[in-house]
Amino acid sequence: MASPPSNTSTPTAKVTSLTDLPCTPTSSWIKLQRATYTTSSGQSRTWDLARRTTTSASGIDAVSIGNIIRHHHHPKNPSTKPKPPSTILVLQFRPPVNAYTVEWPAGLIDKDETPQQAALRELYEETGYSGTVISTSSPVAADPGMSSANMCLCMVEIWLEEGQPEPEQHLDEGEEIQRVVVPVAELYDRLEGLAKEGYVVAAKLWHWAAGAKFAVENPGLFVKEG
Amino acid sequence: MASPPSNTSTPTAKVTSLTDLPCTPTSSWIKLQRATYTTSSGQSRTWDLARRTTTSASGIDAVSIGNIIRHHHHPKNPSTKPKPPSTILVLQFRPPVNAYTVEWPAGLIDKDETPQQAALRELYEETGYSGTVISTSSPVAADPGMSSANMCLCMVEIWLEEGQPEPEQHLDEGEEIQRVVVPVAELYDRLEGLAKEGYVVAAKLWHWAAGAKFAVENPGLFVKEG
Questions:
Q1: How far is CA A6 from CA A9, A144, B193, B198, B199, in A?
Q2: Which of B4, B24, B138 is opposite residue A22, by nearest beta carbon?
Q3: Record's Gene Ontology CC terms (chains A, B) (predicted)?
Q4: Distance from B73 to chain A by nearest Cα, in Å?
Q5: For residue B208, which residues of chain A lie inside 8 Å, CB to CB?
Q6: Are the beta carbons of B144 and A103 separated by less than 8 Å?
Q7: A interface mutation test: which of B143, B176, B187, B201 has the most A CBs within 10 A?
Q8: Is residue A198 a contact partner of residue B137, using CB atoms and an 8 Å limit?
Q9: What confidence tens digit (pLDDT) does each residue in A38-74 have?
Q10: The predicted structure's pLDDT at residue B39
């Protein structure tokens, strides 16, 4: 994994050993490790990190499900306005931050599952909706200064009929997840509002919404040169 | 912090105790903890998490510096094209993922520092550039299923004169950080290219770029209803 910058002939940094820092009692979910690594200038250093013990066969821990809900429009009354394209968010209590969070649906990838399979499974479990994966990101690092955790962003398109009722969730026993459907055009403002109410927004969702808002407000910055 | 959903009268979940899972040897940077919490239906459960030991007085761990570099244009030759609005990224070896990562400049907030002060300090140290903070996000959760870590995204505007040379970095001893300046309009494509070369892109930067790309390609989804 320690791929070098391809534009340099200097030696590349790499981890040379990884030892557990055993905890008492042991956690079944997370462990601490100390990486010993050599810098590109040949020095030996250490760095402590957290690692999930549950990483799937794919080497990818988790998937989050960016999603766009669109409605087929067959108005009986032609004056009916179609529902705006929306996205479904989940609100749940997250013990690590001792708060209710706002996130896109997400979850760990099960053994032998692909990110796309995990995305559609988690979307169905947490929201009841089925959709189609329209893109999958490279594996990206959740918090690379602190942990080895990585994830893919799957964008999923969900097509509904006008007036189709909200489906049942299929939660694991004990899971308590609320759904909120938000028009895409209002996503950033709604996240700001939820943060003011005391919800903690997940960094990844916030960044996606902030990037979209920035592009909408500064279209001139995104014009590619010929 | 366990703010309840304001639209419900059901009891809110909350962490009732937090105990360290002591590790040997101890890390100065991270610890594991076991949260005991009650669910909104009154059940008692546990959840293991990683926590930074370095959280600043503000209660916010870190800041990342989204940035836009713009050039004042005073062409001596009127046919000179201004440089495109760009953003500066940093490439560095990150032991937790045993890889070189692509991130916006970022860092931990020092004791008694505000997020904005930390943003301008880290930007200066890692890139040499000075700028102005134009927005600061609410504190958002880096990976709320796994850790308590939170951060703010500060957007910083950097104005340069045409032809101004790249300044010196002011790195801590032993820090090895490369800078890459990328036109904003090419950000997503460049991140994809770097991922193909073997770099690991930080999830937050990826999500910002993905949100911007999505908004550019689907402007109709972002039109607010009157």
A1: 8, 21, 12, 9, 10
A2: B24
A3: nucleus
A4: 15
A5: 207-208, 210-211, 214
A6: yes
A7: B143
A8: no
A9: 998 899 999 999 999 988 778 999 999 999 999 887 7
A10: 94
Give the span between the Cα atoms of A86 and A82, in whole angstroms: 11
Cβ contact B48–A34 (<8 Å)? no
Q: How far is CA B24 from the centre of its chain?
A: 30
Tens digits of pLDDT across chain B (226 residues): 455 555 555 569 999 999 999 999 999 999 999 999 999 889 999 999 999 998 877 899 999 999 999 988 776 766 677 789 999 999 999 999 999 999 999 999 998 899 999 999 999 999 999 999 999 999 999 999 999 999 999 999 999 988 888 899 998 888 899 999 999 999 999 999 999 999 999 999 999 999 999 999 999 999 987 6
Predicted local distance difference test score (pLDDT) of residue B1: 47
- State the average pLDDT over residues A16-24: 96
Residue A176: count of CB within 10 angstroms of its CB = 15
Chain A contact probe: residue of B98, B171, B177, B180 with most A CBs at under 10 A: B98
Q: What is the ipTM of this complex?
A: 0.94
Q: For chain B, which domains are there?
A: 14-52 (no CATH), 62-218 (3.90.79.10)
- ∠B70-B89-A87 over CA atoms, to 5°? 90
| Rounded Cα distance, A90 and A99, in Å | 13
B7 and A CB contact within 8 Å: no
Q: Is A224 on the interface with B (CB under 8 A)?
A: yes
CB contact residues (below 8 A), chain A span 99-138, against chain B: 99-101, 103, 106, 137-138
Burial tier of B190 (Cβ tally within 10 Å: 0-12, 13-18, 19+): middle
CB-CB contact of A147 with A54 (8 Å)? no
